[in-house]
Specification:
The chain is mainly alpha-helical. The chain is 43% helix and 0% strand. It contains two helices and no strands. It is rod-shaped, with a radius of gyration of 14 Å. The termini are far apart. The model has no long low-confidence stretch (mean pLDDT 79).
Length: 42
């Protein structure tokens, strides 16, 4: 496991991708969902 392992956190950082081992920030997720209209904005 290391920089080349796509399932590890270090591999995700090296590749610049996100996934289960390296989720994006929760605040960004909520803002994106509101923008796409997936959640109700009361």
């Amino acid at each position: 496991m290391g920089k080349g392992d796509l399932k590890s956190r270090r591999g995700k950082i090296n590749r610049g991708t996100f996934g289960a081992s390296r989720p994006k920030k929760e605040a960004n997720r909520q803002a994106r969902r509101l923008k796409l209209g997936l959640e109700k904005n009361d």
